[in-house]
Design a protein that fits this description.
162 residues, alpha/beta, 8 helices, disordered C terminus
């Protein structure tokens, strides 16, 4: 399968590609929210001719570079996420990957074996517990963890938590 990966800030894509990227992720997901907060965030987009196979973003939090990826359902298990991670490592050198579930745990653990000095694995549930302890009060109790993370990002206090 032919795949081309193009790297550029989200806001440097034309409006049509931006819409396609936003449609190629969860309606209320982190990636969609992150590009709205920081349109200049670096994106890695995998194309098969003109079809978006998947995309990823890398964003800096403190001194760490976090990676998030979404692959179109019809291209899953075809190496798209692996190629996006590989390309991001070449460009960024070191990435933090967040384990969400058993699928990402197994996949990211295999990727870490290939790039042991370039990947740090983070457990989402433990991470959320740490954030909840940091943000005390009703806001933390009534808000989703994604919203809390975005709140921290906006105020650039995320690096104090980690």
């Amino acid at each position: 399968m032919q795949m081309t990966i193009v790297v550029r800030p989200f806001n440097k894509w034309n409006k049509k590609i931006q819409r396609r990227l936003l449609n190629a992720t969860f309606d209320d997901g982190f990636m969609r929210r992150k590009v709205r907060i920081n349109p200049a965030v670096r994106t890695f987009v995998a194309f098969n001719k003109h079809q978006i196979m998947g995309w990823a973003l890398v964003f800096r939090l403190g001194h760490k570079k976090w990676f998030n990826v979404f692959v179109n359902e019809r291209y899953k298990r075809q190496g798209v996420a692996s190629r996006l991670i590989c390309q991001a490592i070449k460009r960024e050198n070191k990435l933090d990957l967040v384990i969400w579930d058993d699928i990402t745990k197994n996949f990211y653990t295999q990727i870490k074996k290939q790039y042991p000095n370039h990947i740090v694995l983070r457990d989402w549930e433990k991470w959320c517990e740490k954030i909840a302890k940091y943000i005390v009060g009703e806001y933390a109790k009534q808000t989703s963890y994604v919203d809390i993370m975005l709140y921290l990002l906006k105020r650039e206090i995320f690096s104090r938590v980690f």
